[in-house]
Design a protein that fits this description.
Its cofactor is Mg(2+). Belongs to the PEP-utilizing enzyme family. Its EC number is 2.7.9.1. This protein has 889 residues and is α/β, with parallel strands linked by helices. It has four domains: 235 residues, ATP-grasp fold, A domain (Dna Ligase, domain 1), CATH 3.30.1490.20; 87 residues, ATP-grasp fold, B domain (D-amino Acid Aminotransferase, Chain A, domain 1); 135 residues, Phosphohistidine domain (Glucose Oxidase, domain 1); 239 residues, Alpha-Beta Barrel (TIM Barrel), CATH 3.20.20.60. Helix content is 47%, strand content 16%. The strands form six sheets. The chain has an eight-stranded mixed sheet with strand order 12-22-21-14-15-16-17-13. Strands 24-25-26-27-28-29-30-31 form an eight-stranded parallel β-barrel, surrounded by six helices. A five-stranded antiparallel sheet has the order 1-2-5-3-4. Helix 4 runs antiparallel to helix 5. The radius of gyration is 33 Å and the shape is elongated. The two termini are 39 Å apart. The structure holds adenosine-5'-diphosphate (ADP) and magnesium ion (2 copies). The site of one magnesium ion has 2 residues, from loops.
Length: 889
Amino acid sequence: MVRYVYDFTEGGRDMAGLLGGKGSNLAEMTRLGLPVPPGFTLTTEACRAFLATGSEPAGLWGEVSAHLSALEASAGRVLGQPDDPLLLSVRSGAKFSMPGMMETILDIGLNDGSVLGLAKVSGSERFAWDSYRRLVQMFGATVMGVDSSHFEQALTLLKDLRGVEEDTHLTASDLAELVETYKNLIHLETGDRFPQSPAEQLRRAVLAVFESWNGERARLYRRREHIADDLGTAVNVQRMVFGNLGADSGSGVAFTRDPATGRRGLYGDYLPDAQGEDVVAGIRNTVPLAELRRLDAASYDRLRAHMRTLERHYRDLCDIEFTIERGTLWMLQTRVGKRTAEAAFVLAAELADEGLITPDEALARVSGEGLARLMFPRFDASATGTALARGVPASPGAAVGTVVFDSAQAVHRAAVGEKVVLVRQETTPDDLPGMIAAQAVLTSRGGKTSHAAVVARGMGKVCVCGAEELTVNTDARRFTTADGTVVEEGTVVSVDGSAGAVYPGSVPLVDSAVIRYLEDGPGDEGAQGTVDAVARALSRADTVRRLEVRANADTPEDAARARRFGAQGIGLCRTEHMFLGERRKLVEQMILAGTDAERDRALADLLPLQRRDFAGILEAMDGLPVTIRLLDPPLHEFLPDRTELAVRIATAQARGEEPDAHDVELLGAVNRMHEENPMLGLRGVRLGLVVPGLVTMQVRAIGEAVTERLLAGGAPQAEIMVPLVGDVRELRLVRAEVQRVLAETSRAAGVVLDCPVGTMIELPRAALTAGRIAEEAEFFSFGTNDLTQTTWGFSRDDVEAEFFSAYLDKGVFSTSPFETLDREGVGRLVGIAVAEGRATRPDLKIGVCGEHGGDPDSVHFFHTAGLDYVSCSPFRVPVARLEAGRAAL
Ligand code: ADP
Ligand code: MG
Ligand code: MG
């Protein structure tokens, strides 16, 4: 029989799929002997069954009541017992952390009777009524669907009436009155009464948590974080402990290290006399955790000890929620904490130094995406001017945008391409769409553990929080700084998430420390720890990786940069840009040539220019392979725009003038060459077979450039690559011409030219006949952009704007197949081509030169598929090195 409920004493951290992250870690802490309030977990399986059928799986409530009875027996009182009620929290918790995205309901078991019992046993009427009003509020909003702003307004109204600022200044009778108001609100809004039966409260709360899996913000968060929609959430039912029992109680959040920088130290926020949700919500201003030492030294020491235990046990940065009830410390949650990219690198290096993890584990803990983030530019410190405000540097990076004050406005403006900065007092899960749309998030309240900080860090968004000197007036759509400067919606500001500062206007950017290191080597001032940690991760990756990393580069400058970034050659040198600019004239002449002689003249003029291009690149990559692709795009791309020509001619005619003869000739050519589907038209190898002299000229330019480099004492390693081959006969014809020209050049110059000839595999037919193609190809390079287009039948230029967002919404795919290689379809073709190509030619060199070569997930695939190298843009080279290393672990 399936089992749906596990006691905290039965689970463990390896059961996150079944018990959720929170449940499995609560169990783990229980096993470690840490003080965790007892409880049990309803499995994700129960949730899935409920969501699939709309009703609870048979046997669920039987199991729940058995576990509840055990809990009641050990507590010596029962749920909602009128004279001394056992109270429970009902907490969501999925396999992957989704902070604040689903529901949690506290203080289950209170009603009009037990609130009086609680008041008596606790000796605090105020506490009892405060707990009750929290329950009615949470239950009303979460389970009964009343808009939570109603409750907030009622609370604000009461505070105004009493003339107090903080919730804590409301008296017991104020709070009792508030409970009545809340209950009336619920009745008015739903026609239903707040349930007095503790068992009913529990049951409905559990189902509401199940349902919150499909809440709008949970779904949005999952899409953004690529979390599967069918996992479901577990539900943790746990005995309540109380942080709101007066000054010797409180709640807090802590990190075992700084989640923003990874450095050692004490990081966290503490709020005396409060329940846990107040800390994260930023309702009141917290104090730094270090304060707790002064307030309650014994609890502080115990907390520190538990934090050390957890960090050693998990061998990683942990984040923790805790509550102190009248001097007794309780651990309410832990998990391996989300961290910034910088922190991930620093932490990995430090944990390795401390011997807690091996160098390979350290490499596994960092990511190419994180490295890419550290390569983003920073603000130029000499150009920032005076800060408008300072706050907590919660999530690093530099962002410029116009100020907006709510989520809707952020989404609205971002949709039309505006860069925005979302400014809030504090964020709530409802702000998620705006946070996703914004470049940066700025709040006036809350610390490193606030909702804004946690979510922004998870998404890699810039965030400054707790900028307390700001007065944010959302209704008036403006904020005011300490010196009275008013900043209206629509004003441009620059947010520095690394320094925790906000500047007026758009501050110019400079290279990040990591880029400076990659460009110039070590020895830079500042950010030393980070740079050092990145250097160590890269060097470990270089040691363990099997895949080589090359760059896609078309100019000597790009080639040189790629080399500094660690590229081991060029995997794709496109020749099309060499036909642009002032060379267009020559290309036009070639296309329009009426006779062979005219065409040969145009090609002869192009030859020395191409030779110079190639020689420069070969020099920059001296000693390393440079794969040069013969011309790929359709020739009409080099001609002027059809409409432009037509308009010019028509205008001349309208003025009664004779149109320019060259324009007329060009328009004729453009019309002749027009293609409905240029992507599938006369391009790639087809050009080489149809346009006389083109391949000959390009190969001669390559051969002469190699000769020139050899004579200069260099070690050029040119490889000639033929694009868009679909059949071995195409390649055979072109290759014969390539070899003829190379032999001729070689004879003329008296040097040996050894240039391998290979092909791109970018059509399904090429992949499917790779065994034949390998008879003529000395290497393969997967052109995964075209291969994705042609496999899916998507035109990349058209679909990305049109229907991809709908496809993403509907879950047809979770990332664009142009970003991350589609393993199932395109990947299968890659697998076939590798196997069949190597069957024909065992030493066939195989690489990839599509955009996917720099995408982390795809790099892992190419490693597994047995490729020899990936090639990507120069800035992605370090990312690919790192991921190639991680793939080899
Ligand atoms: P989230 O996943 O959004 O963090 P949690 O389930 O952790 O939600 O609960 C929200 C808040 O309620 C937390 O701050 C936590 O400390 C508090 N809380 C949860 N369970 C208990 C409990 N048994 N006793 C006291 N506070 C609790
Ligand atoms: Mg929590
Ligand atoms: Mg292509």
